[in-house]
């Protein structure tokens, strides 16, 4: 054959046309034929077409931000995405409900219906480092775990025994002292889960019913270390008290470190202000092409400094409240007291905490009616976050002048408190957001009146009540169903986003810029007439993406996974987000992974039963762990990581890839 007519001398445009019909593996093999073929095999337009062909990427979507090579992008999606089942862990003896990694990537924790929490060494092979049986504290199961920022403490939440119990508990484990329990606190409802506020403080919840279909959710800020030398040392402060309607409650709480916050208008303290609520059905940005990854020009969650100009915005959202001259308040753990006195500063009145645990409180207050408890609750001024900016500054300055060591600024970063809620029905269908500006934690409790003074006050109140009843004047009762009439007793929710479906999971992106939410949608245009009868939910799960700077839904919905349980049996399906990927469990016995930017599903990972949770290694997102009802955890690694460990790729089970035209070879 004439050398000029040999395939190695074909024109470039002919070679490119031929290569477009080949598999990526074949193109890479052919690149060694000649220098010309090697040069053509690296053509960027060729690999751009292969990325969009093999992963069915929308042709209008450009390359991921920060990337310059389509060839590198193809290799990332093919060789650097978790896909190989490298380990199967069988440490638990019941359904595995949750898995979470430490920030340094060295450990991961797992929770299960067997009542154990386990701490694993994340090296290869993974092994159990510590474990603890929480059934000794009457826990039915462990359900959620989270490491603090320094990876020295582990938050674990669980459910108490009881067929109809909605009460849970949070335990904090010290990872530097052989996995000992450092403290425990009540958590109600149990699917509040709890979360770290910063490295040394965590959030827990409480729920109290006020009237038919109406309740209040209280968010508590707790010290992770509750040892103290004085009974007057504060270990917990009440942060917020929210109004719940339609038999709903605050659930699935998390905290985002955000400082580049939008300009927002606050005109109502209603939990569902119409001017600050977004509806996906009317929001065109919900279905934009492409999904955001991150914005490097914006500060990330690791930034420690505070933007003072944005801090001034807190004046818009926080409101003043009135104080009586002498009246009792019940902050949920004990009875505290207030009175107008030049010797008691306004900031010192924020210390409505007690060294009693929540469990002790629940026992002592069990016989009281919920209405009486809330009537005696302190107003929003009890919260260090509920004051206007000017008043808060004045209070802090006054307190510092009289008691410099009684307060501490917990965290200089602006934060968002994020949670699920409902207003039309009891199932969670909305995302609520509450902005938190830097504030002080009151370390010492105001002891209040003496015992003799409290007895005298109670005697006066009883006498006044008897006189009123003798005159035929009944005591004033709050109309809890009328929110406008009792709004001043609760903290406003700054922003509400309605997702028109049952929310079953959410996770923050690593930079805390985006919130990813698992939602089982309602039928389009459905009307809810009875809050106790929510609409039927779809088997398909949608992943919505919310930009926490604009507070709008962005990108396209991520779809592929499915759930089958009805509303009254629906449970949380945990998802996780890395810089490039999103992963989620599902009830269809698979876990799924998507590319964040291209918005396409890359693969699914099989189990023998429901996959409840997934977790990326934050230091190495080429490692993914899935937790399932089949009692196992599976560790999935990329082909690249498996080669580094010298694992036999041909012998490892492979997840089901959605890459078209892929060969059977690894």
In short:
By secondary structure, the protein is of the alpha+beta class.
Beta percentage is 25-35%
Give the helix tally.
13
Rg to the nearest angstrom? Answer: 28 Å
Largest sheet properties = 5 strands, mixed
Trace the largest sheet across and list its strands.
Answer: 14-19-20-22-15
Question: What is the average of the pLDDT values?
Answer: 80
The helix content is 10-25%
> What's the end-to-end separation, in Å?
35 Å
* Shape designation: elongated
Give a description of the structure.
The structure is a single chain. Helix content is 16%, strand content 32%. The chain has 666 residues and is α+β, with helices and mostly antiparallel strands. A 5-stranded mixed beta sheet has the order 14-19-20-22-15, with no helix packed on it. A 5-stranded antiparallel beta sheet has the order 27-28-29-30-34, with no helix packed on it. A hairpin with a 3-residue loop joins strand 3 (107-112) and strand 4 (116-121). The longest helix has 20 residues, at 451-470. The chain is elongated.
Write the layout of secondary structure elements.
Blueprint: H1 12-19, H2 24-30, H3 35-41, H4 44-54, H5 70-79, E1 84-89, E2 96-101, E3 107-112, E4 116-121, E5 127-133, E6 139-147, E7 153-160, E8 168-174, E9 180-187, E10 195-196, E11 201-211, E12 214-223, E13 236-244, E14 251-257, E15 277-279, H6 308-311, H7 314-317, E16 326-330, E17 335-339, H8 358-364, H9 370-375, H10 389-402, E18 407-409, E19 415-421, E20 430-436, E21 440-442, H11 451-470, H12 483-486, E22 495-498, E23 501-508, E24 514-521, E25 540-547, E26 552-562, E27 575-577, E28 581-584, E29 590-595, E30 601-606, E31 611-617, E32 620-628, E33 633-637, H13 639-644, E34 656-657
Parallel strand pairs: 15-22
Antiparallel strand pairs: 1-33, 2-3, 3-4, 4-5, 6-7, 7-8, 8-9, 10-11, 11-12, 12-13, 14-19, 16-17, 18-21, 19-20, 20-22, 23-24, 24-25, 25-26, 27-28, 28-29, 29-30, 30-34, 31-32, 32-33
Helix pairs in contact: 1-3, 4-5
